[in-house]
Structure formats: structure tokens, C-alpha cells
Amino acid sequence: MGRINVAVVGVGNCCSALVQGVYAYKDRGEVVGLMNEVFGGYTLADIDFVAAFDVDARKVGRDLSEAIFAEPNCYDKVYSVPKTDVIVKMGEVMDGVGEYISEHVKVSEEKPVDVVKELRDAGAEVVVNLVPTGGVEASRWYAEQALKAGCAFINATPAEIAISGEWASRFQSANLPLVGDDVMDQAGATVLHKALLEFLVRRGVRVEETYQLDIGGGLEALNTLQKDRGDFKRRVKTSAVKASLPYDVPVVAGTTDYISFMRNSRASYFWVKGSYFNGAPIKIDIFMNTVDAPNAAGILVDVIRGVKLAMDRRMGGVILPLCAYGFKRPPTLMKIADAEKFIAEFLGDGSDH
Ligand SMILES: NC(=O)c1ccc[n+]([C@@H]2O[C@H](COP(=O)([O-])OP(=O)(O)OC[C@H]3O[C@@H](n4cnc5c(N)ncnc54)[C@H](O)[C@@H]3O)[C@@H](O)[C@H]2O)c1
Question: Which residue, of 128, 166, 203, 211, is most buried by count of CB atoms within 10 Å of its CB?
Fold first, then answer.
């Protein structure tokens, strides 16, 4: 199989975890912590980063191996990435930097580059969009650049791209894969909440009300405190969780606060109230602590390889099985087990799945 040339947009915490993880796994040759050693016939050793874009003066102009550790990123250095020779280029700011994070992101004064040219010159095949939540115009703009450059587009953000019929048909016409929206973490709050509810429903428990609220220390947690941005993300999380229940009950899911000293960790609180045999009450109260960025990277490494497989098969447009497997707001919302069946059918042979 060939190599996978990846361009990243937004060299923030998720990008840092993704780049560190890919290099670390390549170097160590181990598989602990991966969902799939082989996915779509590819291993992590097949992933190469060939281009990167950001707007922060502390990242633009630097080698990707250094930019991932520049402030305000707060995901720890868990692996020393060797020089990549990929210089982070200046993108278009647009609505990428929201009001709440504007004092933390120091927008570079450099002129934006021609992203299409950069993507083409770098031989990029897959663009991973990791701009902050609420960067809707920016996400659309980068999707447009990916289309023009002949690249597949992975929308890890909640901006409505894969879910939009218009973008789906444009990528379909160009015969380029499109997947999204909003990555569902490898072992994060949404997927655990869904799994718990699906388990309870299978066991005959009538769920009456449930919430999952979290607090984080990454800039994204602060960004989503901005009401318009946070409300939207909350609706995305809530609809993902609701899809795991066969009936309508009160469900709340979302980020409620930002505490800078937590750095990139996230504290998630789950509550479920319901009843089972002959009306007996059940209450579940769970606390989970995770590190945010690697939780997205753990899924992105599969999605990147799945997108490359779709390209090998000359598939264009929205790749539904990948959307259902790796995202909170796919065009078709599913239960976890259904999404896993769907992705296994898509992958066929050549993966652990
Ligand atoms: N577990 C997770 O962390 C997780 C899960 C699901 C979705 N996501 C999504 O991933 C995205 C990235 O999250 P993060 O924690 O890495 O955020 P972050 O704030 O750490 O990084 C965002 C980066 O984008 C850059 N940026 C802002 N505007 C830009 C523009 N117009 N062009 C290029 N770069 C721009 C910022 O300078 C920053 O480096 C968010 O949309 C978030 O919702 C993350």
C-alpha cells in the first residue's frame, strides 16, 4: 500500500497529540492504546505530515515539530518529534479566533499563503481540519481549498460540512472523500455516555433523565464558553447521545467550565436516573478524567487511514461508514454497535476490525 500525505489546519492541542502519536508509534513499533493496528490496510507508519497551517505568530514559520509545543498549546510533550521540514504556513483567520480565546491567540501579521498551491506543492492528499469550534467560515474556506487542490477533507470540528448536502455533492462531483462532523473521541465522554445508555436499554432499564457535563483546561474549553459557540457544540453532543435512546427523555451534554490549571485534561460527570424490574429505581453517578487531545487523535489516525482507503477505491462524496464510526454529528446518527458493523462492512479485509 502507498503512503498517506496529510495536511493539518490548526496546529493546536489535537494536532500536537496527532503528530506526537504518529511519530511515537512509528518509532516504538508498539500497538498499545490503538483501536486498530491496521485500518483499511494501513498502519500508522504509512502516515506522513506534509503541510500545516495556523494563524498564531508563535506557530507560523516554525517547523511542525516545534510549533506543536508552542503556547497556548497545553498538551504535554510526551514524545520528541524529530524535525519534519514541514513549516507551518499562515492561513486565513476569518472566524477561527473567537472572542473568548482572542487574548490567548496572537494572530500573526504575516500575509496568508495560497493554501491551494501549498497543498499541491506538498503533494497533500488528505486535509484534517482542526480549527477551533465556531470557526464555521474558516472551516468552509479550508474545505474549499481542499476541493480546489484535489484533497479529501476530514472535518474534525463541529462546523456543518459533511452534514451539508451542498458540500457532500461538491465533493462527490470532484470524486474526493469528505468525512465529519466533530470527532467522537476514542474513549471520551460522548462515546462512554452512548455506550452506557445503550447497555441500560438492552438490559430493559427505562432511562428517565441523564446528563454528562465536563470541565476542561484546553483553549477549546474556554472557546466553548462563548455562548453561541458552546450552545452549538452542546447541541451536537446532545443529539449524538440522544441517538442512543429509542425514546425521548431529557438529555443534557456539554462543557460547563474552563479551568486553566487543568491544562489539557477534562473532568466529565455522568448522571443517569431510570427504573428497571417492576419500577425499581436505578441511579448512576460516574466521574471520568481524561486527556483531551489524544482522545481525538486516537480516532483521527483511523479516519485518516479510512479516507485513504476510500481514495484507493476511487470513492468520492460523504463516506458514511467513516462518518458514523468517527464523528459525533455524522449525516446519519447511529448506535455504537450499528456504526461498528457499518465500518466493518466498509473495511472488508485488511483491518483489525
Ligand atoms: N478531544 C478533542 O480535543 C476534540 C474532540 C472533538 C472535536 N474536537 C475539535 O477539534 C478542533 C481543535 O481542537 P483543539 O483542542 O486542538 O483546539 P486548539 O484551540 O488547541 O487549536 C486550534 C488551533 O487552530 C488555530 N486556528 C484558529 N483559527 C485558525 C484559522 N483560521 N486557520 C488556521 N488555524 C487556525 C489556533 O491558532 C490553534 O492553534 C476543535 O474544533 C474541536 O471542537 C476536539
Answer: 128
